[in-house]
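Sugar phosphate transporter domain-containing protein: structure tokens wanted.
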Amino acid sequence: MPARTALAGVVAALLLAPAAAEASMSAEPQGPLTSRASAFAALTVLYISLNSSLNLLNRWSLGVYGFRFPLLLTSCHMAFGFAALAPVALRRPWHVHRRKLAKQWRGILAIGAFLALNITLNNASLLDMTLTLNQIIRSSIPVVTCLLAIPVERQRPTLRNAFALLVLTAGVMLAVWQGRVAGAPHAILLCLASTVCSGAMMTLIGRLLTEKLDLVHLTFYTAPVSLLCLAPFAFALEASRSQAGLGCWRHLDKLLQYLPGRQGAAATIIGITSLNALAYNLVHNAMIGATSAVTTTVLGEAKILLLLALSVIVLGEGQDVTPSFMAGCALAVTGFTLYTRAQLSKLAFGQSGTKSKVAKRDVADQPVGKLQLIILRAD
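Answer:
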């Protein structure tokens, strides 16, 4: 039942994704209000639907159904995204790519490695952790980003930010610790490591990339790096050598033991989640370009609350919902909300004298864009 529900949502969202993204990007500011409102509403529904379905499908596939190959799943997602977007990226002459790579190879290498670690560690944590707890821990990405900004960007948090992050941290600790650790300790460590990688990527992306890259070219350049980082670990951990082996390539033990009778299911899981991941990335990119920081904040908060509810309803994780866990969730979401509100107030104060210069479309070059990335990618 969870698979059918999530699958139906994915298929519907995938069918609507191209039209909604195109409508949101092509709607002119002077166009009819109803048309722009409809396009934005469709984009918002798609963003939340695709994000929720991707998280639910990953958790169900890896932790409930038993497809315990997070590295293989992540590699397939990245390979599919690269193959699907390559024809678009390659429409530009090769000398343009050569120039970009010559200028930004350090940033591309670092982001590709961080991205591989972030997604893989998070998927691996879902093997032995509820999605509810996973989302609460992942909501602490702003804490990591703020701490890393102190040595990297020489920025110290304000009192409001420090208080908000303290509340957020307390909520995460309360959700994780309820007289005992709620969830497998190794899964919690993997999720924490993934959160650190995500925060590091958010902090360093502005310093590592000397010019803005759109989603298509960022994926085209970083996916091969991520795959190279993942391949040795996927081969070693999920395709181990047989003791009587005549060579690694003929003895993919773990995978071959799993596949008999499940080839169709494995192909469906990989195919649907790969499509879901690609569609989510495209809609996520359109959302960053089409929304203001205030709207993004509301969506980020709504997304976390929705996933907490869906993980209980769809995945049956209600047995882990205790009063102390709910109190921790409430504290964590409150801290996340306070932090984003404080950041928005800071941005509004800094831009109070130049309101006419505030651009919503080109957010990736400004602090608002970084804040939006933190909020939207806290998944």
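The longest helix spans residues 33-65. The chain has a mean pLDDT of 71.

Cheers.
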